[in-house]
Amino acid sequence: MAIQNNTKPGQADDFLRIQDLFYLCAAKWQWFVLSLLVAFGIGYYYLLKTPPVYTRTAELLVKREYRGRSISSDIEGFDNFGLFRSATNVNNELVALQSPSVMTEVVKRLHLDMSYYAPGRFHDRLPYGMTLPFQANIAGIQENDFAGCTVNVYKDGRVQLSDFVLKGELLKEVKPVTGKFPGTLNTPLGKVTLEATSGYVRGTEYKVHVV
Question: How big is the CA angle at 41 (ends 123 and 35), to the nearest 5 degrees?
Answer without folding.
Answer: 155
